[in-house]
Amino acid sequence: MTATAVFTARALLLDMDGTLVNSDAVVERIWRRWADSHGLDGDEVMKVVHGRQGHASMALLLPDRPAERNLAENARMLAEETSDMDGVIPIPGAVEFLAGLRDVPHALVTSADVALSTARMAAAGLPLPDVRVTAESVGASKPDPEGFLKGAAELGVAPADCVVFEDSGAGIAAGRAAGMRVIGVGPRAGFHRPDAAVPDLTQVRVEAVGDGSVRLHVA
Prior knowledge:
The chain has helices spanning 24-37, 42-49, 54-61, 67-82, 94-99, 114-123, 146-155, 169-177; strands at 5-9, 11-14, 21-22, 89-90, 106-109, 131-133, 162-166, 181-185, 196-198, 204-208, 214-218. By secondary structure, it is of the alpha/beta class.
């Protein structure tokens, strides 16, 4: 973007991987190993997995495989990911961005489970929001809007008054399906037509407004 866009909201819903935390190194390692073990093209697999729960990605990539096997394999991969924090770092600007939300209603809405989201946020040196919607909280993975709708409900804010921060196609689609505006973060986001896109969170300024809302200045 070459100009500044301004969004007004009453709550923010934040994805984790690719949005607050750069976990691409470990995601690439683990999913490319999985692709190799199943005779799949790693580049094609990486086009699918960002933003989704692992078992949902497996269902797309291996559509004839029983769901029970996907769930079991996903559980093993989550444990592997949770034990591998090599290369997990904050997205530029994430520390300052979250510090600016202390008095702003916000929630983490992630396809990771509790253990993985807790470990990755800690590895990146980021505080966990009080309200968190994780894989255990929903019955359907992004791009289904359930996670974002649950986050808005827990914050007591109407979906139309929320702004989503997302990096992936699945996540952006989920935010749109929830009736929310979406700010895309990082190199993947711009391909999926968010309402605005930034390379990282250094390009977002949070301004509290006296009526309880917040203005987001997106450069």
